[in-house]
Amino acid sequence: QISPISQPYWQGQRLLISAGPTFEDLDPVRFLGNRSSGKMGFAIAEQAQKMGAKVTLIAGPVTLATPFNVHRIDVRSAQQMFAAVQAHYAQNAVFISAAAVADFALAQSSQHKIKKQPGQDGLTLQLVKNPDIVAWVAAQSDKPFVVGFAAETQNVLEYARAKLHAKKLDMICANQVGENLGFEREQNQLTLLSAQHEKILPTSTKSEQAQQLLAFIAEQQTSIKA
Ligand code: CTP
Ligand code: CA
């Protein structure tokens, strides 16, 4: 079922992937995080490597083994992920932003453990917006082919299409999360959207979704260049 175009396209191609959550530290023992496991991004890295791609994987804090022959760079915060992406995007033909980047970070993280005070009955955290990493890459003049993800619990395709346009992406993978799909799950269901095309993938394992996604990118890229 995988397009025969995809193998030659990915052979020797440089692919940058971000994966996993980011953790935003409050203090040395606490952080704000999210439920991304990193499995989708790691599955894409593994499958792309098998198709012959040279893969760099920028990973947030996850408990996954590095796929064979994949260059992995570990980061923790959105700012660290941004710095790693800025250092690497230009050497790659394709950037897939599969990471669940925290939208906000602490305005200030404390050097020491925050202690609650006697009688304190609440705590207000001040957050500041993180950079939009995928939108930043898509705005560069030497940008690679840029693929985003949109994990949504409702109005999935509508929100995904809005993100495709707002962030000026080449493609977005709409991802229904919740119930038995998406975060912390083996099975996934993606719909692939570009300006011209829409492809609904059947529910399958993240490895199978990754193969289909890589084949779709190869088709898009091959038709652009043809
Ligand atoms: N993304 C990013 N940097 C951010 C936030 C998101 O690069 N600071 C990327 C994600 O990796 C994903 C895409 O943008 O590829 C969409 O992320 P998502 O969280 O769905 O969209 P947001 O623009 O953050 O909108 P919201 O969370 O409000 O739905
Ligand atoms: Ca977000």
Automatic annotation (TrEMBL):
Which transformation does this protein catalyse, written as a reaction? (R)-4'-phosphopantothenate + L-cysteine + CTP = N-[(R)-4-phosphopantothenoyl]-L-cysteine + CMP + diphosphate + H(+); N-[(R)-4-phosphopantothenoyl]-L-cysteine + H(+) = (R)-4'-phosphopantetheine + CO2
Superkingdom assignment: Bacteria
Which of this chain's residues are annotated to bind CTP?
D103, K113, P131, D132, I133, V134, F149, K163, K167
The Gene Ontology terms for molecular function here are: FMN binding; metal ion binding; phosphopantothenate--cysteine ligase activity; phosphopantothenoylcysteine decarboxylase activity
Residues annotated as region Phosphopantothenate--cysteine ligase? 15-226
Q: Which organism is it from?
A: Thiosulfatimonas sediminis
Q: What does this protein do?
A: Catalyzes two sequential steps in the biosynthesis of coenzyme A. In the first step cysteine is conjugated to 4'-phosphopantothenate to form 4-phosphopantothenoylcysteine. In the second step the latter compound is decarboxylated to form 4'-phosphopantotheine.
Give the E.C. number(s): 4.1.1.36, 6.3.2.5
Q: Return the protein name.
A: Coenzyme A biosynthesis bifunctional protein CoaBC
Quote the gene name from the UniProt entry: coaBC
Where the record annotates domain DNA/pantothenate metabolism flavoprotein C-terminal, the positions are 10-219
Keyword GTP-binding included in the entry's annotation: no
Cofactor: how bound: Binds 1 FMN per subunit.
Q: Name one GO cellular component term.
A: phosphopantothenoylcysteine decarboxylase complex
Q: Name one GO biological process term.
A: pantothenate catabolic process
Return the similarity comment: In the C-terminal section; belongs to the PPC synthetase family.
* Full-sequence portion shown in this chain: 175 to 400 of 400
Q: Which pathway does this chain act in? A: Cofactor biosynthesis; coenzyme A biosynthesis; CoA from (R)-pantothenate: step 3/5; Cofactor biosynthesis; coenzyme A biosynthesis; CoA from (R)-pantothenate: step 2/5
- Cofactor(s) the record lists: FMN; Mg(2+)
Alphabetized UniProt keyword annotations? Decarboxylase, Flavoprotein, FMN, Ligase, Lyase, Magnesium, Metal-binding, Multifunctional enzyme
